[in-house]
Amino acid sequence: MLPETKKGTILYVEDNPDNRSLIRRVLESEDYVVIEAVNAGQALENLENGNIDLVLMDINMPDMDGYTLTAKIKAVQKFTKIPIVAVTANVMRGDREKSLEAGCDGYIQKPIDIDTLSQQIERYITRSPNV
Asked: Residue 104 is part of a domain; what is its CATH number?
């Protein structure tokens, strides 16, 4: 049996190129495949075309916010089991709950702690059906 070389495929929905670059470097160094989407349209297209194990969802995006996009994704039967983790600078009281109510399975606040990101991801990706 061949050793498994990749831990899973993560779709990172984020409009900020610096954030995308940082997360890509961190996760690829931890042996994840990272697919990027800069807006809702790209995110939905990537979900249709790929075997996505986890979605990291930026909440504050210009075309469609992450809450709306999460609800839209979770409304599609074939995507309901893919974990979606909110990644957001929204850290006021109630923001975590709002993310969970929108259908997110978890919540990671910005600025992202790159030293613990991989462990946080593993908690969610191990429950994913594609891994």
From this structure: 3.40.50.2300
